[in-house]
Design goal:
Helix 2 (38-70) packs antiparallel against helix 3 (73-94). By secondary structure, this protein is mainly alpha-helical. Helix content is 55%, strand content 10%. It has helices at 9-15, 38-70, 73-94, 106-112, 134-152, 173-181, 184-193; strands spanning 21-27, 123-129, 166-171. It has a 3-stranded parallel beta sheet.
């Protein structure tokens, strides 16, 4: 999502089948687009993923509660357990906590598997920097620390320290493209001159 455009329902449905998500965020200024607003672009994308999951949770919660009122026996208990899980997920998402940061029982994992929640997936955020990548690297470090703090703020029994969180990396796409276009002998010389 960039420049005020959202991911869209079709894109959200497409990425739901992915094992992990990669978001590329512009962190350079160019004449056509002007200055980058990397923070706003990242926050908009993260919020869109949260809202997509929240919509799924709210829809499922309504259905489960309605079904639980109509039936009894062991099926009712299963539905009540699922409703409690959906309430927990809803609370986390409303607090803007990605679901990947929560701990789950094996039964809860089984219940959640079919929903393909976007905030359960590992997330890699790539900041596409200009020639001076230092500001983008600082921003990536800031976001990495903020995500670690968000996870650490969860109560220990509810926190999943083993799950991969969001990872933030920086690269210069333009520089990488230029290096790739060099002749092999020039590329080796160029990389050696920078100690790469």
């Amino acid at each position: 999502a960039g420049q005020g455009s959202g991911l869209g329902e079709e894109m959200l449905n497409t990425i739901a089948a992915a094992d992990a998500l990669v978001a590329v965020v512009r962190a350079f200024e160019d004449e056509a687009s002007g200055p980058a607003d990397s923070e706003a672009d990242y926050e908009a994308t993260a919020l869109e993923l949260l809202l997509s999951d929240l919509k799924k949770v709210e829809t499922r919660l309504e259905r489960v509660k309605a079904q639980a009122q109509r039936i009894g026996g062991p099926d009712k208990k299963k539905l009540e357990d699922e409703a409690r899980l959906m309430e927990r997920l809803k609370a986390a998402l409303e607090a803007e906590t990605p679901l990947r940061y929560l701990a789950y029982s094996e039964d809860e994992k089984r219940l959640m598997r079919s929903f393909q929640f976007l905030t359960m997936k590992p997330l890699i955020v790539v900041l596409n920097a200009g020639e001076d990548a230092a500001p983008a690297r600082a921003l990536a470090e800031k976001w990495q620390a903020a995500n670690a703090e968000r996870r650490a703020a969860l109560p220990a029994p509810e926190r999943n320290d083993a799950a991969p969180g969001a990872q933030f990396v920086t690269l210069s796409g333009q520089t990488e493209m230029e290096i790739a276009q060099l002749a092999p002998e020039d590329r080796a010389e160029f990389l050696a001159s920078y100690g790469i």
